[in-house]
Amino acid sequence: MGKPVYPLPTRLQYLIGVYGECCRQCVATKILGVTPPTIIQMMRDGRLRSVCGGSMVDVHSIAEYMDAPAQADFEARLKKRNGGKLPRFYVR
Length: 92
Hints:
The protein is mostly helical. It has helices at residues 11-19, 25-32, 36-44, 59-67, 69-81, and strands at residues 22-24, 50-51, 56-58. Strands 1-3-2 form a 3-stranded antiparallel beta sheet. Strand 2 (50-51) and strand 3 form a beta hairpin. 14% of the residues are buried.
């Protein structure tokens, strides 16, 4: 008999295991490898969700962003360009 096979944790499960459900902005900068002003801008335009009155970042949103950063950045640019709304149709 071989060793039992355990499934690898998903990115979300790993991040929650290491950082918990939410983390401070300075920790989010280290996770994503960006500067603190970038984290603040990402929270403003909706790429990351803030919790605790904006002082902390939701780890679920960090994992979602890490799964598809180009799509999240693209949608944030479209929202900024169109006054906060996504267009009905766009080509990816």
